[in-house]
């Protein structure tokens, strides 16, 4: 047993020294000559200021970036002097005690190129390209244009492809290797979940701390276009409505509804989702809670021969940062659960995660997840990693 522990520690140190994970887009820090902790603590987790920066189209309202555009002599042309780019390379050393019970160099787990910024005042873009995701070329996931402050108001408009769950909790910004499993759940043969889709998003914020979001989606994910060059495989559009309310400085409540319909080979599936969430913050702790309820009337597309399917799930995430935004050491725990009449979706896990900031943009991590409910056997996963961004 001792020999196994020392082997794990030795391999983790070796793996950390290799430098295995890149997160975030430090091109913004280079552009404005500002430290990463202005927006992140710890990265890639966003602080309130980082949320405001992203919502403002990746621009700081009161700070003009030096040499941001090229002077072409045409005042009607906005041409970036440099295209801001960054990389994310993510890998892990993992041990899974099910099946083969083996150590695995899960690297590169992710390799992506990111770019984003303000094209001109109130018009911005963001995208990333997956060179590799779990050993395959995955292509583009996030890719959108953002129009800020429409009609001189706080109304923002986004069009392109993005994660449906972005207005809830952003999967890309979580600290754990373990995912928010309920967002990934697809029932039966349905194409719909709360990860990536194509569409448009409108957001509006009131001074009272109330924020509204409306999404109109294809409801077919982000696969390839069909022979007619259409991305949407049916005539339906799906709708998402989101509202959040800040209560004081340390509490936020949110609600979310998804109304959709999809069709495959002439058979339709109507579905709805309702979700509630809350965030509680203190000087040292942050607690994030999410519950999702889903109903599909024919997710196997059998002309109603099978009964409607009920699915329920959520997660609870607790973060501990002993020195707040200046913490170099932090801890996180994540509880996942999914219960569905489509039993292949059933899932339950408990994750413990620790991390230390070696530098402001270098984060060493260790994580243990126990999957106590799964269509397969129960198992535990141990993962070591190093997260860095430049």
Overview of this protein structure:
There is one protein chain. With about 400 residues, the protein is mainly β. The protein has a single domain (about 1-65, about 80-390), classed as Porin. The chain has helices at about 1-20, 25-30, 50-55, 180-185; strands spanning about 85-95, 100-120, 125-135, 140-150, 155-165, 195-205, 210-215, 240-245, 250-265, 265-280, 285-295, 310-320, 330-340, 345-360, 360-375, 380-390. The protein has a 16-stranded antiparallel beta barrel. It is globular, with a radius of gyration of 22 Å. The relative contact order is 0.14. The model is unreliable at about 1-25 (pLDDT under 50).
Task: Please give a quick description of this structure.
This protein is mainly beta. The chain contains four helices and 16 strands. The protein has helices spanning 2-18, 27-32, 48-55, 181-184; strands at 85-96, 102-120, 123-133, 139-150, 155-163, 196-205, 210-217, 238-247, 251-264, 267-281, 285-296, 309-320, 329-340, 347-359, 362-373, 379-388.
| Average pLDDT metric | 84
The parts where pLDDT drops under 50 for at least 5 residues are 1-24
The CATH homologous superfamily is called Porin
Q: How big is the Rg?
A: 22 Å
Distance separating the two termini: 38 Å
Question: What fold name goes in the CATH topology slot?
Answer: Porin
Name the overall outline.
Answer: globular
**Number of DSSP E strands:** 16
Which percent range describes the beta-strand content?
over 45%
């Amino acid at each position: 047993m001792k020999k196994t522990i020392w082997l794990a520690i030795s391999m983790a140190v070796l793996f950390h020294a290799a430098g295995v994970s890149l997160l975030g887009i430090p091109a913004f820090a280079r552009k404005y000559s500002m430290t990463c902790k202005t927006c992140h603590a710890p990265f890639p987790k966003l602080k309130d200021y980082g949320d405001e920066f992203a919502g403002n189209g990746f621009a700081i309202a009161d700070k003009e970036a030096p040499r941001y555009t090229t002077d072409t002599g045409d005042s009607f042309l906005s041409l970036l002097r440099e295209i801001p780019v960054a990389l994310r390379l993510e890998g892990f050393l993992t041990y899974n005690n099910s099946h083969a019970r083996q150590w695995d160099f899960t690297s590169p787990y992710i390799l992506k190129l990111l770019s984003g910024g303000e094209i001109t005042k109130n018009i911005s873009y963001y995208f990333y390209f997956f060179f590799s995701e779990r050993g395959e070329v995955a292509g583009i996931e996030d890719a959108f244009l953002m129009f800020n402050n429409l009609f001189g108001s706080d109304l923002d408009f986004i069009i392109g492809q993005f994660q449906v769950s972005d207005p809830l909790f952003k999967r890309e910004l979580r600290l754990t290797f373990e995912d928010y499993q309920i967002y990934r759940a697809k029932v039966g043969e349905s194409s719909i979940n709360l990860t990536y889709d194509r569409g448009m998003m409108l957001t509006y914020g009131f001074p009272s701390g109330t924020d509204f979001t409306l999404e109109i989606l294809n409801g077919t994910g982000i696969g390839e276009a069909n022979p007619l060059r259409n991305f949407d495989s049916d005539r339906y559009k799906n709708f998402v409505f989101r509202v959040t309310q800040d209560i004081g400085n340390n509490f936020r409540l949110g609600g979310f509804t998804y109304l959709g319909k999809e069709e495959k080979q002439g058979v339709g599936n109507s579905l709805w989702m309702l979700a509630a969430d809350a965030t509680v913050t203190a000087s040292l702790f942050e607690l994030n809670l999410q519950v999702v309820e889903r109903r599909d009337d024919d997710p196997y597309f059998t002309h109603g021969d099978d009964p409607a399917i009920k699915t329920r799930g959520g997660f609870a995430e607790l973060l501990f940062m002993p020195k707040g935004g200046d913490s170099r050491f932090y801890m996180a725990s994540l509880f996942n659960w999914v219960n569905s009449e489509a039993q292949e979706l059933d899932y339950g896990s408990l994750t413990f995660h620790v991390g230390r900031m070696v530098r402001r943009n270098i984060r060493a991590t260790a994580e243990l997840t126990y999957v106590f409910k799964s269509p397969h056997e129960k198992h535990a996963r141990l993962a070591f990693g190093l997260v860095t961004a430049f």
